[in-house]
Design goal:
Elements lengths: L15 H15 L6 E2 L11 H14 L15 H12 L11 E4 L2 H7 L10 E5 L3 H9 L15 E5 L17 E5 L11 H14 L2 E5 L25 E6 L1 H4 L7 E4 L5 E3 L5 E3 H12 L5 H10 L2 H27 L4 E3 L5 E5 L6 H12 L1 E2 L1 E2 L10 E5 L4 H23 L8
Parallel strand pairs: 1-13, 3-4, 3-5, 5-6, 6-7
Antiparallel strand pairs: 2-8, 7-8, 9-10, 11-12, 12-15, 14-15
Helix pairs in contact: 2-9, 3-9, 4-5, 10-12
The protein binds D-malate.
């Protein structure tokens, strides 16, 4: 009988978001008339903007003509798209990239997972806690963790706690690590990293010859001019960082699929004999072997995001979501709930009231307010006692969700003050 990859048996039974969907389905089955508001998974709700739709249609039309049809495209993505990205997304930040350093893909999720292909299992890996579960789980899948300890951490990984006590800023590890995952604006906490914090990481990585895997999937939500959009805005980062970006949250491509990974030409790793090897060449080799590129119409649609019209339309949608985040933050704060993030980010991270456990708050929220969120503990042990609300919903629904939480919560607070038993009903 074929042997399985036993590492999969060390994973939690289900990936976080399908587990939430399972619970939501069960709730809906038992409560068919409940009007659920879903602020759990960070999935966009606004349609593609007109400039993108037009380009997408044109791409499909080209595929329908004998003369204009496209078969396999380059595995790295079309150079014209990479050039547009270099010009429009990076040059204004003072970052010069060549098209050969930009690899177009089907999204940041797959790339942050697949990047492990080009690194040896002996690397010491640091991840934040709480964290986007993909980084943790894919490291378990490749065998970097043999046991889950009592606190829920995988032995073999180095965890960097991010809590309100350290202002959600991971401390630079005391030990030497080789790979460091950073995600800013952060998923799940919605917090951001300034130039000073990122510079400290880049200095550490350069000094220790470590590689930073920088997930910038939410960079388009940054409105504060002092917050870097790219790790390459930091001096030295091209020598120590790979950056992942996504059109999912920037331009509503969660169902379309397109992202990109930047692997600078000067970025080097080391082979078993101590020789320096180009990571750009390795990633290129990996992509050419395992990936056949993103479809032509999708890349046409992605290019349209950077047209003047496209960018204006896309930013209107981003400001709509940021407006939602503001409504959530202000509404919850008015209900006495402590919130973080949500200012340069579509995620609001809140402290569960009365020290409730994250999944208990999930149950309470779904049962009593008919609002779905994401339990902080699903992102790691340090997320226990926190909860994430996504601002990607429809405005009316966000207002309604906040009103429901405020109403229930104020009632709960007055009951608590009166010293009666906990019940929001
Ligand atoms: C999230 O809710 O954390 C994201 O939607 C997950 C993802 O982008 O894969």
């Amino acid at each position: 009988m074929a042997r399985i990859n036993d590492n999969y048996q060390r994973l939690k039974a289900g990936y976080l978001f399908p587990e939430i969907s399972r619970r939501v389905e069960e709730f809906s089955k038992n409560n068919p008339t409940a009007e659920l508001i879903r602020l759990g998974i960070g999935d966009v709700t606004m349609p593609l903007v007109p400039a993108v739709v037009k380009a997408f249609h044109e791409g499909v039309e080209e595929m329908a003509g004998q003369e204009t049809f496209h078969g396999y495209g380059p595995e790295q993505g079309y150079a014209w798209l990479a050039e547009i990205i270099a010009e429009k997304a990076y040059r204004p930040l003072g970052v010069d990239l060549t098209a050969a350093e930009i690899f177009i893909s089907d999204g940041a999720k797959s790339d942050t997972a697949n990047i492990l292909d080009i690194f040896d299992n002996s690397n010491r890996v640091a991840i934040c806690d709480p964290v986007y579960p993909v980084y943790n789980d894919t490291n378990i899948m490749v065998g970097r963790s043999n046991e889950i300890n009592a606190s829920g951490h995988c032995q073999g990984l180095i965890y960097l706690p991010c809590t309100r006590e350290n202002n959600f800023t991971p401390a630079i590890p005391k030990e030497k690590v080789d790979l460091i995952y950073l995600c800013y604006p952060n998923n799940p906490t919605g917090t951001v990293a300034g130039r000073k914090e990122l510079s400290a990481w880049v200095d550490y990585a350069v000094e220790n010859r470590a590689i930073i895997l920088f997930d910038a999937a939410y960079e388009a939500f940054i409105t504060d001019p002092d917050i870097p959009h790219s790790i390459y805005e930091i001096e030295g980062a091209k020598r120590c960082a790979i950056e992942f970006r996504s059109f999912s949250k920037t331009a509503g491509f969660t169902g379309v699929r397109c992202g990109l990974t930047v692997v600078p030409e000067e970025l080097l790793g080391m082979d078993a004999n101590g020789n320096e090897v180009s990571l750009n060449r390795m990633w290129n080799r990996r992509q050419c072997t395992k990936f056949n590129g993103v479809s032509y119409p999708v890349q046409k649609a992605a290019a349209a995001v950077y047209s003047d019209e496209g960018w204006k339309q896309v930013m209107e949608v981003i400001f709509y979501y940021l407006g939602n985040a503001e409504i959530i933050r202000q509404g919850l704060a008015a209900a006495g709930i402590t919130c973080f993030g949500g200012e340069n980010s579509p995620y609001v991270w809140l402290l569960t009231p009365e020290g409730m456990k994250s999944w208990d708050f999930f149950d309470k929220l779904i049962n009593e307010c008919h609002v779905v969120g994401t339990p902080g503990s699903g992102f790691g042990p340090a997320g226990e006692g926190y909860f994430r609300l996504s601002a990607f919903g429809d405005r009316e629904q966000i207002i309604e969700a906040v009103a429901r939480i405020k109403e229930k919560w104020s009632r709960y607070q007055s009951i608590e003050k009166a010293g009666t038993t906990f019940s929001m009903d």
